[in-house]
Amino acid sequence: MDHGAELYRRFLDGDNDALSDIIRSYRDGLILYIHSLTKNICIAEELAEETFVVLIVKKPRFSGKSSFKTWLYAIGRNTAVDQIRKYAKRHTIPIDEMYTLSDENLLEQEYIREERNRIIHRSLKALHADYSQVLYLTFFEELSRDEVAAVMHRSKRQIENLLYRAKAALRTQLEKEGIEHEEL
């Protein structure tokens, strides 16, 4: 009979110190084994604890057909597989990871938006003054065609033509910068 089996038998007979010895002897190896299944050390630690809880609460029968370590690792594997199945059914992300993902996505989107705005402003500066002015008033200041016409002292028809040519010029300039802008 191996040492783990002897400790487990003593635990079943009421010796709680034997359980402490089992945990001390097998905890680290069990965590590393479960980590190979879950790829997350925190989850592996929790599942190792759950494995020991199974020993304490359910007190499964050890048949002796394998070593105690093999039997314990099989319980750990089953615990991990059950957890993975539950997780797959729920399709949820732990709340602390959700904030991290949300923050990362927001930061990335904000960076892309700022970079795109810098390129658009740089491209606007490269355009003819009338083109950049009509685009700025239309898209950044969100003025109507009539309001742009009043500001630029032009007719509404002239503004529409100017806006059409300005969009084409900006699209060409953005393509030079390596950006395709669908909205233009």
Describe what this molecule looks like in 3D.
The protein is an all-alpha fold and 184 residues long. The chain folds into two domains: 3-90, Rna Polymerase Sigma Factor, Chain: A, CATH 1.10.1740.10; 96-177, Winged helix-like DNA-binding domain superfamily/Winged helix DNA-binding domain (Arc Repressor Mutant, subunit A, Orthogonal Bundle), CATH 1.10.10. Helices cover 80% and strands 0% of the residues. The chain is built from eight helices and no strands. It has helices spanning 3-12, 16-38, 41-57, 68-90, 95-126, 129-140, 145-152, 156-177. It is rod-shaped. The model has no long low-confidence stretch (mean pLDDT 82).
Keywords:
184 residues, 2 domains, mainly alpha, Arc Repressor Mutant, subunit A, 80% helix, Rna Polymerase Sigma Factor, Chain: A
